[in-house]
Design brief:
Helices cover about 70% and strands about 5% of the residues. It is mainly alpha-helical.
């Protein structure tokens, strides 16, 4: 049911507001939420590239709803605003002597200058901004390359599952095989395992399996999290497998009980290929075709390994921490340079504006560093489901058509030889 609501919301929206950091109240969830772009279609591309896109994003409603604004509002911008306010208060009331203060007009602001004020020359920030820009840009580009790699891995998996499903439905049984119940059941079971594979991937690569209703808090233990997530996983698997069938029920239970579910699904598919499809007395598949199925399974294993590499290996953490320290200190020292230029009135808003854009670039990179949290994995699973179901319906339609032609041929041959040539090519 939760996945259905998520799918319905995805069908209407450009982005989905998603929060995995639940915190203690709804305000915190609103602040820490992030946006997930859904799969684009022609209508969404048209809206995304409309002429007024640059003006429309500056409306107050769009600014408040922007996840970059919300995520940086607290504690980052709040701290920088407090630092700027303290610098202004200190320079105006604590360190200022009335007989030493000089009031001038700069850039339209009244600037109070005196010998005791806290300040830094703007050259300090001009020189260091080059190094800071390189650090932030390199981190953001590296994070985005991880995002692109994750999307590429899922695209390879979707394509391979489609091709493997088509190969199983069209090449089984082979020329020497028999189309008995055991082969038919193995064929359908293999397709269902491929549909379950994307679901297993989704739950393996995200903490909540893309189920926003699951509340995972910091104090929860791993068994508690796994038990909460297993309920949703079991509900999704029930949409694929027939729980009234004892054999399929056993498959689902074994899948839920194992530690590494994607590996179990791929290993089970390998067994079906070896025991049923490649068996001369059952599937009778040609050795080359059977080897192609093994090659597809190995490619899916490689996709799994590529996704796990992204999940298990962050960007070198000392680099990330150094960039964060540099950026945060640089932004908090900005009011020391802005106070002599724009005075107490302009220091706080100008500092927070510059800090918002600088920290916003770094925050976008940090969000896509773990790309599986910002990809619509539930939609990728739907794509695989729809593709497999379409191929199943098409195969069943072709099988029924072939049976009807065979029945017509048998009836025609019983009428005598004169009916063998009843259909004549008019050319």
């Amino acid at each position: 049911e939760a996945q259905q609501r998520l799918a319905q919301a995805s069908a209407r929206a450009m982005t989905i507001h998603y929060c995995r950091d639940h915190g203690s109240n709804s305000l915190w969830r609103w602040i820490r939420g992030l946006s997930i772009d859904v799969n684009y279609d022609f209508r969404r591309w048209k809206k995304h590239q409309k002429a007024g896109r640059h003006v429309g994003i500056w409306t107050p409603r769009k600014i408040v709803r922007a996840d970059s604004f919300r995520r940086l509002l607290f504690p980052d911008l709040f701290t920088i605003g407090a630092t700027s306010s303290f610098v202004c208060y200190y320079n105006m009331y604590l360190a200022c002597l009335p007989e030493d203060a000089v009031t001038t007009l700069k850039h339209g602001f009244n600037v109070f200058l005196h010998h005791g004020m806290l300040s830094l020359p703007m050259e300090c920030f001009s020189v260091t901004s080059i190094a800071l820009g390189l650090l932030v840009t390199f981190k953001t580009q590296t994070c985005y390359s991880r995002y692109t790699d994750a999307r590429t891995q899922w695209g390879l998996m979707i394509n391979e599952i489609r091709g493997l499903t088509s190969r199983i439905l069209t090449r089984v049984p082979g020329p020497k095989g028999t189309y008995d119940d055991r082969v038919v059941n193995a064929q359908l079971q293999a397709v269902k395992l491929l549909r379950s594979l994307t679901v297993a991937f989704k739950y393996h690569l995200t903490e909540d399996g893309c189920n926003p209703h699951i509340v995972i808090r910091d104090e929860m233990t791993d068994p508690e999290i796994r038990a909460a997530v297993n309920v949703s996983l079991q509900a999704e698997l029930h949409q694929i497998w027939d729980m009234e069938d004892e054999r399929e029920f056993d498959i689902v239970q074994r899948l839920l009980s194992c530690d590494h579910r994607p590996v179990w699904v791929l290993h089970e598919l390998g067994h079906i290929n070896a025991d049923i499809f490649a068996n001369p007395s059952l599937g009778g598949m040609h050795p080359i075709t059977s080897a192609e199925i093994d090659r597809s399974l190995m490619m899916l294993q490689g996709t799994l390994g590529g996704c796990e590499k992204i999940l298990r290996t962050p960007i070198y953490t000392p680099y990330t921490r150094f960039t964060s320290r540099f950026l945060f200190l640089w932004c908090n020292l900005l009011p020391l340079a802005f106070f002599p230029l724009v005075g107490p009135v302009g220091t706080v808003p100008v500092t927070m504006t510059v800090a918002f854009f600088m920290m916003g670039i770094e925050d976008i990179g940090s969000r896509v560093e773990q790309p599986f949290d910002v990809l619509p994995l539930w939609q990728y699973c739907q794509v695989v489901d729809q593709s497999c179901e379409q191929m199943l319906r098409h195969s069943e339609l072709l099988r029924q058509t072939e049976q009807s032609f065979e029945m017509a041929d048998s009836l025609g041959s019983a009428d005598g030889d004169e009916n063998l040539y009843s259909f004549v090519d008019p050319l």
